[in-house]
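Field reference: sequence -> structure
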Amino acid sequence: MRKPVVAANWKMFKTRDEALQFIYAVNDQVPSKEIVDTVICAPAIHLRSLVKRQGENIRIGAQNMHYADEGAYTGEISPNMLVSTGVSYVIIGHNERRRYNNETEDDVNLKLIAAINHGLTPIVCLGETAEQFEHADTDYILREQVRTAFKGVKAKDVEKIILAYEPIWAVGTGRSAPSELADQKCGLIRRIVGDLYSPSCSEKIRILYGGSVNPSNCYDLLTKPNIDGALIGGAALVSDNYIQMCQQAVDAVKYKYNN
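Structure field:
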């Protein structure tokens, strides 16, 4: 059974004091890392402070990185810098980076390969806009996003990657995709990976759902066969909510095991 991932994406929220208050509140409350991978993806300015204070069962991730090891890229952060900070994960291709910072599918591919080469676990975001969804273009969009992102990725590295299906029309809107639809699209992504590599690769890769996930819908989403966790925005800014959703991931594992 694939180990679930509960990843918080704080986006541009929390001061240093607020970030430290959060990690002190959750460190001893999250499940064992043997059962669930719990991740906090924080603003870059907080990463070192959080890494120094992360508990045994929690890991810290970045929200973005450049694909180059170094260079004249003012304001960017390299994979080398993240590794030296002690970060374990990095979000790649979030829809807000694509929308506001003009990131392309080729950028996502370069960042994914750089993350793998530096031993970082990439969480690669995929998803369609409302217009694409309404025009039934979702399947085509997902196929193209996966194929471009995985260009040049070796089969032995596929299981090191985490994918996150985040329909753009659901992110930050309070309108989560129905769990059956989310599972269907995550299943499609899994089949696309299988077509590119092998059924074995597709069964090993973990696929998350993101888009208005909260304590009221998290368990239902995580019990679906193709959904291996959640990438959570606003609802994960509150420590009690985050702890609750981590526990729901444990309950979802039990449900899947017994069914």
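Note: The longest strand covers residues 37-42.
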